[in-house]
Amino acid sequence: MAQGIITKAISGFYYVQNDTGVYQCRGRGLFRKKNIKPLVGDFVEFEADNKEEGYVNQVLERKNELVRPPVANIDQAFLVFSAQEPALSTAMLDRFLVHMEAMDIEAVIVVNKMDLTTIDYLHSYKEEYEAAGYPFHIVSSRDGTGIDQLQKYLNNKLSMVTGESGVGKSTLLNRLLPSLNLETAEVSARLKRGKHTTKHLELIPCNNGFIADTPGFSSLNFEKIDEDDLDICFPELKEIMPDCKFRGCTHRKEPGCAIKEAVEMGNIAEFRYEHYKQFFEELVQQRRY
């Protein structure tokens, strides 16, 4: 019995890679009976007489599991947004960050397409997000500006590149790994949305680890997150919340709330706090219905 990692899953086949190569495998029938679905990123036990005919016998314990995209055991995510076409949405960025925190995935914020606009307005966001503990990089995948500073994050990690459609994820990956030559597409001038150039999820070997290009999203709903745990998904809130007067403070209307005080004093970005309240109400409504 050998062990490896699933790097691609297409049409019922799982492509498992280890030090001896890549093996095309099928899943055992018991997976369906036990409602187990192997995912890209899964570490598995498999057996194969050759590279074309193998079987995945067991899925090993997962560090984490994402639904959209369906991938497991991610160490870190490059959250790619654009400065223009489409313009940076901090609400969507914060939505992604909450998901990463809930899944215990390190996040690196990458704002692409700096060549399309003046970047002065981005510096205040950079300061706010770095104060919250997130690396924040402003780059251009078109001309390569700033791409080198991302290389340091890749070593020995299982990483993914994700974000909204049309922000230049595939172009960014082509800059990071020039041998890839991934398909790219321009943003629709009429709709201001990008085309989904990534058709399936695949792990690509990179710096003694792997990196995944994932299909882009136009929306992202909260799943497996409870409103009572939302505050710990904002690192700057998590740090201050023990100072709140009441245990179980939701940081909205309660007196003696250390977080509301920190917002008033300018120690927590007001837009981040507003997104927290917005997401909280969304989760309450989601639970009701």
UniProtKB/TrEMBL annotation:
Gene3D superfamilies: Nucleic acid-binding proteins, P-loop containing nucleotide triphosphate hydrolases, Probable gtpase engc, domain 3. Its cofactor is Zn(2+). Its EC number is 3.6.1.-. GO terms for biological process: ribosomal small subunit biogenesis. It is found in: Cytoplasm. It is an enzyme of class 3 (hydrolase). One of its GO terms (molecular function) is GTPase activity. Keywords: Cytoplasm, GTP-binding, Hydrolase, Metal-binding, Nucleotide-binding, Ribosome biogenesis, RNA-binding, rRNA-binding, Zinc. SUPFAM superfamilies: Nucleic acid-binding proteins (SSF50249), P-loop containing nucleoside triphosphate hydrolases (SSF52540). Zn(2+) binds at residues 244, 249, 251, 257. GTP binds at residues 112-115, 163-171. Binds 1 zinc ion per subunit. Residues 72-218 form the EngC GTPase domain. Its main location: cytoplasm. One of its GO terms (cellular component) is cytoplasm. InterPro entries: G_CP_dom, NA-bd_OB-fold, P-loop_NTPase, Ribosome_biogen_GTPase_RsgA, RsgA_GTPase_dom, RsgA_N. It comes from the Bacteria. Residues 63-220 form the CP-type G domain. Pfam families: RsgA_GTPase (PF03193), RsgA_N (PF16745). Monomer. Associates with 30S ribosomal subunit, binds 16S rRNA. One of several proteins that assist in the late maturation steps of the functional core of the 30S ribosomal subunit. Helps release RbfA from mature subunits. May play a role in the assembly of ribosomal proteins into the subunit. Circularly permuted GTPase that catalyzes slow GTP hydrolysis, GTPase activity is stimulated by the 30S ribosomal subunit. Belongs to the TRAFAC class YlqF/YawG GTPase family. RsgA subfamily. This is Small ribosomal subunit biogenesis GTPase RsgA. It comes from Salibacterium salarium. The lineage of its organism: Bacteria, Bacillati, Bacillota, Bacilli, Bacillales.
